[in-house]
């Protein structure tokens, strides 16, 4: 959804970070009021959402306008430019995605997806792009969370809007793979494991593994990892360790990250839970 509460910067402002799974993938958060991009083409795909203002660009022989809330995209090798569609400029969240990254969510041997439009009005996809982009730029997010969200976004995008709509590989019974993954997450919950780490143990591709675990357990690998971390933190709250030390022991980026996750899962803060546990254990009998 568009976020109009934050004004567009009067001058160019941009932050970027590299994405997981592929070293050449990039996330960009930027605002421009007067900037005009010269005509160019990308080696990979570009997918974004306009948060405020409007972006105009010439693409496939037409001048397109992507307003706030719209998804904008370009196909590899297709020339385009970019400029403000009005006096206020625009602010957007962009993902620059090598073809190898999209191939991870396609069946083996499937051709790379083709997208004809440069602007898509799809509120569900726009919200998913924005949410995934925020997660990818969150330094406190785990590797599993970032990778799972990115692949899920790519599968949603290709499944809803690619010209050929390639079907995802079927998810069959993989009890051994699921058990291996759950055991690994339980044993190494504090480590910043990646989907590649889990996939290597299970003998499956990262995306197929993520879908298999979710299909058979109802939770993604990242959700299982978070659950293991929260259980470890909950056990530790019966002891004397500081909350910051418990957060580090359980694999959370910091105490505030633990507090948010703990409250979302259990309905109260770690400190409040500790008081209940310690007061209860102090009762006689």
UniProtKB/TrEMBL annotation:
Pfam families named among the record's database cross-references: AraC_binding, HTH_18
Gene Ontology molecular function: DNA-binding transcription factor activity; sequence-specific DNA binding
Keywords in alphabetical order: Activator, DNA-binding, Transcription, Transcription regulation
Domain of life of the organism encoding this protein: Bacteria
Keyword Electron transport carried by entry: no
Keyword DNA-binding: yes
Domain HTH araC/xylS-type: 179-276
InterPro entries in alphabetical order: AraC-bd, AraC_XylS_family_regulators, Homeodomain-like_sf, HTH-like, HTH_AraC, HTH_AraC-typ_CS
Protein's name according to its UniProt entry: Transcriptional regulator, AraC family
Organism: Solidesulfovibrio carbinoliphilus subsp. oakridgensis
Taxonomic lineage from the root: Bacteria, Pseudomonadati, Thermodesulfobacteriota, Desulfovibrionia, Desulfovibrionales
